[in-house]
Specification:
Elements (H helix, E strand, L loop, with lengths): L11 H10 L1 H23 L7 H16 L10 H21 L3 H20 L1 H6 L1 H7 L7 H25 L4 E4 L2 E4 L2 E4 L7 H19 L3 H33 L1 H4 L2 H4 L1 H30 L1
Antiparallel strand pairs: 1-2, 2-3
Helix pairs in contact: 2-4, 2-5, 3-7, 3-9, 4-5, 8-10, 9-10, 9-13, 10-13
């Protein structure tokens, strides 16, 4: 006696037909997603902290489509009732989060809804094959305030201390009082954008994208580079603070707080990416060479 499998391969035309019959799921997904993305663009992506959000969304969508090529749908039978039920539950959850102005909860609900729709289209096993691009897209969700605020405060002190210590060792007249930095007759404040918390989130995401494309088959090495993105992000933020201190010291407030300060977000991204590439060039021959030798 044979039991019917709960997961079976389905031709693409059958999947398309299933979605045509259940078009309301796509409509519900679009209605759920649109307000959250618009709010995210207005409230977070327009700030320096969330400037990498659109990049993560576009690269994540591209990576998902790229990895989904050649994937044969193996839709689960449970998807017939599980997908609509999940969309109903998490759709209501998303609406409640929007009403209470909890944007990260709203985006979490949207993300779960999209993953549910993807599960309904492909099945659980194929969804696991796409776990890297799916998890990568989760970096769009900004960290909640009860985590971001204390972490930002701690990281601001770490970045400020490191920057002042470096310049002091070079003989510059620098001092620190909390997040207030003094160089010569000038005073600067280490803002949240300079702390590294938001940079860690966005730069880690971009680093994972780089690592996955180049070293997807080398799981341990890719994991090592992903972990190294945290100190890389802090290093890039410290370089930014040091650069702004030196610009202010030699050029005054007009230079330090002018257009060069506004362009510092792009600068930190380039520093972090360049540092990651340099680490990869140094570590790859050492670690991957040993694996080949074995």
């Amino acid at each position: 006696m044979h039991t019917a499998p709960s997961c079976q391969s389905v031709p693409k035309e059958v999947v398309a037909s299933w979605w045509m019959r259940h078009w309301f799921i796509l409509v519900a997904g679009l209605i759920t997603v649109a307000p959250g993305i618009v709010a995210l663009a207005k409230n977070y992506w327009s700030t320096e902290q969330g400037a990498a959000g659109p990049i993560i969304l576009m690269t994540g969508a591209w990576l998902l489509l790229h990895e989904a090529r050649g994937v044969q749908a193996a839709r689960d039978r449970q998807a017939r009732w599980l997908v609509p039920a999940s969309l109903l539950v998490f759709g209501a959850f998303t609406v409640a989060a929007a009403i209470t102005a909890k944007q990260w909860l709203q985006l979490l609900g949207i993300y779960i809804c999209l993953v549910t729709v993807l599960y309904g289209a492909l099945g659980w096993r194929q969804l696991l094959r796409l776990r890297v691009p799916v998890l990568y897209l989760a970096f769009i969700i900004p960290p909640p305030d009860n985590i971001a605020v204390p972490a930002t405060h701690a990281l601001k002190g770490l970045v400020a201390s490191g920057s002042v210590g470096f310049l002091s060792a070079l003989g510059y007249p620098v001092a620190r009082d909390g997040v207030l930095l003094y160089i010569g007759q000038y005073e600067l404040v280490v803002a949240a954008a300079c702390s590294g918390m938001n940079s860690i989130v966005s730069l880690t995401a971009i680093g994972l994208f780089y690592v996955y494309l180049l070293h997807r088959a080398r799981v341990r090495y890719a994991a090592l580079l992903a972990v190294l993105m945290i100190p890389v992000a802090l290093f890039a933020n410290a370089v930014r603070v040091i650069a702004l201190l030196l610009l202010t010291y030699y050029g005054g407030d007009a230079v330090g707080q002018g257009i060069l300060h506004d362009a510092a977000g792009l600068f930190i991204f380039l520093v972090a990416l360049g540092t990651l590439v340099a680490l990869d060039r140094i570590l790859a021959p050492l670690l991957l060479g040993r694996e080949k030798a074995r």
